[in-house]
Amino acid sequence: WFSIVRMKLLTAIVLLATTLTLSESVMVCYYGSWAVYRNGKGKFDVEDIDPFLCTHIVFGFAGLGSDNKVRVLDPYNELCENYGKCAYDRFTALKKQNPNLVTTLAVGGWNEGSASYSKMAADPAARATFADSVLEMLNAHDFDGLDFDWEYPTQRGGNPEDKVNFVILMSELKKALHGDGKILTAAVSAGKATIDAAYDVPGFADTVDYIHVMAYDLHGAWDKYTHHHTILYQYPEDEGDNIYLNVDYAIQYWLSMGAPAHKLVLGTATYGRCWRLDDTSDTGMYAPASSPGSPGPYTYSPGFLGYNEICEHDLTSPWTIVNEPVMNEPYIYDLSFGNTWCSYDSPDSIITKALYAKDNGLAGMMVWSIETDDFLAECHSRPSILIRNMHEAFSGESLTTLPPPITTTRDPLDPTDPPTTVTFPTASPGEHCAYPGNNPDPYDCSFFYQCVYDGTGYIEYIVYCSEGALFNPITFICDYDYAVCALGDEYCPANCPL
């Protein structure tokens, strides 16, 4: 009897502690781990994360294996085994600098697609296997919780039953994670059509601690006209389904469908969506633009520029900046940069979004992603100006600026241990692995080779990109197919032109 009472008391204490933590305003920052492979000043590793900038940081991404277990997508970077770089452990070790920091692991993402998650969610045994593997992974690397990023139930190869099965899966994950003192969050769509098809909002909302509304990518080069991808309010010329594609509509719709305000986190972007103007005399909203804008020097993805790329470009080739009175956010263009036109959030417009979230009683703000902000303060007096501004505006508190990080690649060993130098073999003719990590196929970009060095040679895995995506041989990740094909015909002859 005493043991039962003691267990209930401990459970109550854990739940109380969780409630107290969740009642505070949150600043959720996603970390795209592939930024470690970027060039020059765009390279961003775990040690570049300011552990006091955000309240929650999310490591993106892990995936789902064919065995229904969590799958590590880049073992060389993320694990310590086989001479790996231990990114998971280094990431959660940021809590040593800030004990209040919450570190979680995101599973899913756009590149993962939907079909495998749909199949897993429909099978009770597969769901149990997945939940067990989640707990095992989180505990092995000291993560504080899971961020589930299924994009999206019922969509992209999913099934109509996903809407019900998603709630069942999330309920089981909640039971498993909360029972172990961990949190459960989810990243969700801001589009009305997807919300209607994918989510039983009241049932789903009951399963999670926070709902990260991805209120960005509302427009992009997949449209053949310019528009703002994070626009706060409806643009006067919007009609048809475009009247739903704005931040305000998305948040109010989630609220009207039964999502509690205290669980909603407004997602924003530290990047722009860009187009190549068809007519240089037409540079406004809804201008014809049939192809993606020029790529940046770090992300190298046509149609996409990190805020760091946008602001650094302005230092040498100034953008024409347009602030329409009917819009909160600016847009820019530079006819000398391949007629590129971009929509993005500025340090000022991001404050307005944070105040909007605060006025609507939301839990806080979220950003994708920490590594495309001006983290080196190349353009502003303070690093990570977008995240810093939105965090301070929502919380009402000033953040301390930390000194530049000490550069290091890993510290898995005791400091007294001598360093170990590992020389990786060059691939022999006919082999596909030239280095650890993701390697491109020279002809077909619908898949890539994931290469793990085991001390004597490479273990090779073939990984397919999801529908609508191709492997970008420059950035080493799956990207939108139109963006990869825009790099040039020499990269993916089997897939481009589309």
Helix-strand category: alpha/beta
**Which CATH architecture of the largest domain?**
Alpha-Beta Barrel
Strand content: 15-25%
| CATH first level of the largest domain | Alpha Beta
| Tally of DSSP helical segments | 13
CATH topology of the largest domain: TIM Barrel
Unreliable spans:
1-21, 405-422
Which terms summarize this structure?
globular; alpha/beta; 498 residues; TIM Barrel
Q: What this model shows, in words?
A:
This protein is of the alpha/beta class and about 500 residues long. The chain folds into two domains: about 15-270 and about 345-395, Alpha-Beta Barrel (TIM Barrel), CATH 3.20.20.80; about 435-485, no CATH class. The chain contains 13 helices and 20 strands. The protein has helices spanning about 1-20, 75-80, 85-90, 115-120, 125-140, 160-180, 190-200, 200-205, 245-255, 305-315, 345-360, 385-395, 480-485, and strands at about 25-30, 55-65, 70, 100-110, 145-150, 185-190, 210-215, 265-270, 270-275, 290, 305, 320, 330-335, 340-345, 365-370, 435-440, 445-455, 460-465, 470, 475-480. An eight-stranded parallel beta barrel has the order 1-2-4-5-6-7-8-15, surrounded by six helices. Strands 9, 10, 11, 12, 13 and 14 form a six-stranded antiparallel β-sheet that branches. Strands 16-17-18 form a three-stranded antiparallel β-sheet. Helix 9 links the parallel strand 7 and strand 8 (about 265-270). Helix 11 packs parallel to helix 12 (about 385-395). It is globular and about 60 Å long. Residues about 1-20 and about 405-420 have low confidence and may be disordered.
